Amino acid sequence: MARLVMKFGGSSLGDIQRMRHAAGHIAREYNAGHEVAVVVSAMAGETDRLANLVREAAPLHDAREYDSIVATGEQVSAGMMAIILQTSGISARSWLGWQLALNTDGTHGAARIVDIRDDLLNKSLAAGQVAIICGFQGIGPDTRITTLGRGGSDTSAVAIAAALRADCCDIYTDVDGVYTADPRVVPEARKLGRISYEEMLEMASLGAKVLQTRSVEMAMTQGIRLRVRSTFEEPDAFISDIPALDSGIGTLVCDEDEIVEQQIVSGITYARDEAKVTLLRVADKPGVAAGVFGPLAQAAINVDMIVQNISDDGKSTDLTFTVAKSELDRAIETIGAARDQIGYQDLSGSTDIVKVSIVGIGMRSHAGVAAKMFQTLADHGINIQAIATSEIKISVLIDAAYAELAIRALHAAYGLDV
Prior knowledge:
Blueprint: E1 3-8, H1 16-31, E2 35-40, H2 46-57, H3 63-70, H4 72-87, E3 92-95, H5 97-100, E4 102-104, E5 113-116, H6 119-126, E6 130-134, E7 137-139, E8 145-147, H7 152-164, E9 168-173, E10 194-196, H8 197-205, H9 213-222, E11 226-230, E12 251-254, E13 267-271, E14 274-283, H10 288-298, E15 303-310, E16 316-324, H11 328-337, H12 339-342, E17 346-350, E18 353-359, H13 369-379, E19 386-390, E20 393-399, H14 403-413
Parallel strand pairs: 1-2, 1-9, 2-6, 3-6, 9-11, 10-12
Antiparallel strand pairs: 4-5, 7-8, 11-12, 13-18, 14-16, 14-17, 15-16, 18-20, 19-20
């Protein structure tokens, strides 16, 4: 017998039929004798509907009331799933965030989990009951409902798995695992059997939508094994194998020590939600960079890639950096307001770019990985506008028109094609 946390996202709970299908997966594990806690998101599209209602009522609204409203989507899912399981003869009950005392800080709309009271869940599981838990929500220090931000149900699931000391946390979604690239862009992409926490964290932060970044980070720090699985596989198509985790189903996210053969590059990711800001002929003197990025920090605008070059006149520099596409107008406005302080000749912004990244823990011990990336892009006539690196990833900024060509070419160059 194992203790298992199962998380179902909105795409898995789009209607009653899909809920019944998800319930089949829960029943399989329960009937195999495992203790099962289930974390649910709102039904597909429900959070967006509720958020739009709030914005329609008042564009500038009380964040505490916003949380109170959007958190109801998960409440419906939890209650519905409990009822569906009960009609199948399985003991189940729903739990809201405040009932569990899933305590968070007071940052409404983007709260962080502080601790979880696990005694109630332990009693429920020990009694043979399936606990259906609302994801995405908790309770703040002021006893108000809080939400964890988009994708927060993944974080809820990992936190609950850590509190319960679960053997595994299965994330059920609309894909059957983590792939070497987006299969919609690269038909030759293949499913990874295992991927390290660090690789998954990089891929999630660089555009992969399979797992939420905070959930992977928490899983890594808490040592929780994650497994990405498809809700839409048949619930009875295979025998449950929780303790071994080697059934070949889904993708296991684990410590790199558990991966016997480490690939040089494990995956190619891309992000289209980046925008580029360029300042021409900035004065080349101490304090200028602080003059640019200080106001952006004060405006809570995150900067990603930064490139500085000598201007045509040889006496000043050109500075380029990227921000989220949704923050471009604010970034331009912020830099424009600080023009006298910074001292630049021209300011421009563009959104016709894409960030393409290669990720792999094998990069630590292999030379020439970057050279191959740059040569592959050059061979296909793709110009690199900016570069950013870490120990296990290399990201480049390129023209958006070349995104798919770049991804396919790099996927083949690193031997990732099926």
